[in-house]
C-alpha cells in the first residue's frame, strides 16, 4: 500500500461506503449527529457489530445514555446479537448510563473536568480484545452536565487522540437539540472530528416522514455532497445512494 493511500474501514452500513470512497479513513474520528429518533445509535452499534462479524475487527461501545440491556434488546430486532459478541471477546461495553446501580466512572467535577479515568478503562478494553473500532454514545450527555466548553473540548480531544492512537476508528454520536440548527451542543465537529455525518427524519406529510443521511465532511475523501435516502430496515440501517429523500 502506497504511503499516500488512505486505508479504508468498511462501515457495515449498506450503501454508505459508496458515498465515501469505500469507507471511513482508518484511525479517524467521525461524528454522527442528528436530532432524537434519527437512528444515530443504531448506525453506531451496527458499525461495531458488522466490524466484528464481517471484517474481523472487535469493538468497544461506551454508552453514556442507554443501559446495555436495552441496547442489546433493541439491536436484536435487527438480528444483531451483542451478547454473543461479548461472550466471544469481540465486543466490550463500558456502561456509564445513568441507570447504572453502582457508582459510574468518576469524570471529575466542574471546573476540574478530567476524563483520565474513563480513558484508562477504554484503553484497557481496547488492548484486551484488540479492538479496532470504538463508539462513544452520546457526547451530548456530558456536554449538558459540564458548563465549561473549553475544558470539555480539551479533555475530549485528549480522549479521542488516545483512542485513535491505538489504531482504532472512533465514532461519536451527538444529539442535535430539537430547536437547534447546528450540529451539537458544543461545536465538537470543529475540534474533534475529521468526518461529520448528519441524519435526518423529516416530516413530509401528515402521515409520513422521510429519513435521510448527509456526509457533511470527510477529510481525505471525495464524498457525496448530496442528501441521500436512508431507512431503518429489519436488518438495520440501509442507505440508497441514488434515491432522492421523500420519493
Describe this structure in words.
- 28% of the residues lie in helices and 26% in strands.
- With 247 residues, the protein is an alpha/beta fold.
- The chain has one domain (8-98, 107-240): Rossmann fold.
- α4 runs parallel beside α6.
- The longest helix is centred in the middle third of the chain and has 16 residues, at 149-164.
- The chain is globular, with a radius of gyration of 17 Å.
- The chain starts with 7 loop residues before the first strand and ends in a 7-residue tail after the last strand.
SSE order and pairing:
Elements (H helix, E strand, L loop, with lengths): L7 E2 L14 E2 L3 E6 L5 H15 L4 E5 L4 H9 L5 H6 L3 E5 L20 H14 L3 E5 L2 H6 L3 H16 L4 E7 L12 H4 L3 E9 L5 E10 L8 E7 L2 E5 L7
Parallel strand pairs: 3-7, 3-8, 4-5, 4-6, 6-7
Antiparallel strand pairs: 1-2, 8-9, 9-10, 10-11
Number of separate structural domains:
1
What best-fitting shape do the alpha-carbon axes yield?
globular
What's the multimeric state? single chain
Q: Structural class of the secondary elements?
A: alpha/beta
Question: What is the architecture at the second tier of CATH?
Answer: 3-Layer(aba) Sandwich
Series of H and E elements: EEEHEHHEHEHHEHEEEE
* Number of DSSP E strands: 11
Q: What is the percent of helical residues?
A: 25-40%
- Approximately how much beta-strand content do the residues carry? 25-35%
Q: What's the total helix number?
A: 7
N- to C-terminal separation? 41 Å
Overall mean confidence score, pLDDT: 86
CATH superfamily: P-loop containing nucleotide triphosphate hydrolases
CATH class assignment: Alpha Beta
Main sheet, how many strands, which sense, barrel? 9 strands, mixed
Do you know the CATH topology?
Answer: Rossmann fold
If you compute it from the alpha carbons, what radius of gyration comes out, rounded to the nearest whole angstrom? 17 Å
